[in-house]
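Hi everyone,

Forwarding the result from last night's run.
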Amino acid sequence: MITNSTAIAILIISFLVMIALRIPIAYAVGLASTFCLLYLGVPLNNICQQMVKGLNSFSLMAVPFFITMGCIMGTGGISDKLIALADSLVGWMHGGLAMVNILASYFFGGISGSATADTASIGKMMIPMMVDAGYDDDFSTAVTITSSVEGLLVPPSHNMVIYATAAGGVSVGALFMAGYLPGAVLAISLMVGSYIISMKRNYPRGDKFSMKVFIRQLGRSIWALLAVLIVVVGVVCGVFTATESAAIAVVYSIVVSMAVYRGITWKGLWQVLGECIDTLAIVLILCGTSSIFGYCLTYLHVPDLATTAITSLTSNRVLLILLINLILLVLGCIMDMAPIILIATPILFPLATSIGIDPVQFGVIMILNCGIGLLTPPVGTCLFIGSAVSGVKIERIVKATLPFYLCMIIVLLMISFIPGISMLLPHLFGY
């Protein structure tokens, strides 16, 4: 067994130093792996081989398609219709617009699969709307950024596909099914927190519930919601694979955005595709370099060493689960979501499964931890996007988000210690 401590130190320390120097994460991962392999005397052609191997995955092809679908649907006139649908359902409550924001994020997340896209798209409409209605701007921004995390759990989520690949072939269909209930629990938790704050601050409520209005808004939104239905039902029922469903969803999103809602033109479509390429380049380069990093970790048996080291501290299952969550939350403060999934999964996955956590459940746990990381400084992407959209200072947003952090931590603990929340639907559908 190769467990060269110097090589491990070179790999980890050089990576952390480059992160501290703000070198782009993809380059930091690739360079740290290269330094490690040079020290070990491993032929450098392994770098190219591992990069190709990391990208040569049929299931990973779903990631570009899902990202493209989210970009097209997000700019194709979908957001306002989903907000109207959410308003017809929950706008009548105290703090109705906060509830609308949270529910709209649940709907939109099933289309975009991206918390950052949700924050930008929903936030541009909902934050000014809430402020005009008498809500505090920091509260409105906090609701927007925290509810955006629902989109990471609600399928189709490209981050779940990335996790499935990093974990070594976990069923994408099972992960899709596993995300629905945790996403709903998170939404309910945020609604409860919003309701309590709204009652204390006497925020307004909207119009009374009307079945007629709800049916009308559902009819207008049905074309957008069908995109999610096509993907999830198709994958779960075995009609097509996640990659095939993602490709079909892209074609469907183009047709709906251009022919049904007419929210995008041919010129606009090319512009959206150009923006997608920028995102895809970052994600796929990261997948390639992370494959080299994973190869180094496996070569040096770092996952086994990490498992042994952590279990030597305690054998208590509860403490181990809390420790895994703590590690992921700390990583979320200093790294973005995709790098955490690609780097931490090979290390923590063996430990999680060794204490009886199902691989699918662990995927949900990891996604939610990373989602919370998007809201925490100093690298909280959604935090900064929310600040840019609303014009509210980061410090005020963080303070306003504290009650919602508590809501999210409670949901995280529920998902960690109650497997049924994640596993009920996968078991019902035979996974």
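Residues 59-288+299-428 form one domain.

Cheers,
N.
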